[in-house]
Amino acid sequence: MVESINTKVEYAGKGTSFLGLGEYGNILIGDKGFEFFNTRNVNDYIQIPWEEVDIVVASILFKGKYIPRFAVVTKKNGTYSFASKEPKVVLARIRDHIGNERVLRSLSAFQVTKNGLSALLKRLKK
Questions:
Q1: 49 closest CA partner among 70, 28, 20
Q2: Does residue 126 register a pLDDT over 80?
Q3: 82 touches 46 (CB < 8 A)
Q4: Distance between CA atoms of residues 18 and 41, nearest Å
Q5: Residue-wise pLDDT tens digits, 57-112
Q6: Direct distance between the N- and C-terminal alpha carbons of the chain, in angstroms, rounded to an integer
Q7: Closest by alpha carbon to 98, among 44, 61, 51, 39?
Q8: In angstroms, rounded to a whole number, what is the distance separating the alpha carbons of residues 13 and 43?
Q9: If pLDDT is split at 50, 70 and 90, which confidence band does 4 have?
Q10: For the chain, which domains are there?
């Protein structure tokens, strides 16, 4: 059995991890870090201490009314994508621990397309 890194749990709820195929489990946010435990396989878990979290990027649609997923970017181990039943509550708890300036909004589809086209035009001009 895996031990939690948290001593106090501030939020516990259902969520999905998008590391590979989508896996259903429980998201725990506590005083020491962010945790995801798979409901089917006990040995399949993700534990990220708050010191290791670099930024959190949230995909926000319809002017903040719908948040389909968010990604936790770590300093060493890459990016972990998650979805939650209550993403606004999850992001608020994360913001309490890492600060408001490190919770960011992801680029919209229009912004990604515009950046890609401008980069393509710059390459073609060279």
A1: 28
A2: no
A3: no
A4: 15
A5: 999 888 888 899 999 999 999 999 999 999 999 999 999 999 999 998 888 888 88
A6: 57
A7: 51
A8: 19
A9: confident
A10: 9-125 (2.30.29.30)
Instruction: Determine contact, residues 34/52, Cβ cutoff 8 Å.
Output: no
User: Contact, 80 vs 94, CB < 8 A?
Assistant: no
Residue (of 112, 110, 81) closest to 17 by Cα position? 81
Residue 69 structure tokens = 């997923």
Q: Scanning the structure block, which residue is given the tokens 């002017």?
A: 63
- Residue 1, pLDDT > 80, answer no
Q: Is 92 helix (H, G, I), strand (E, B) or coil?
A: helix
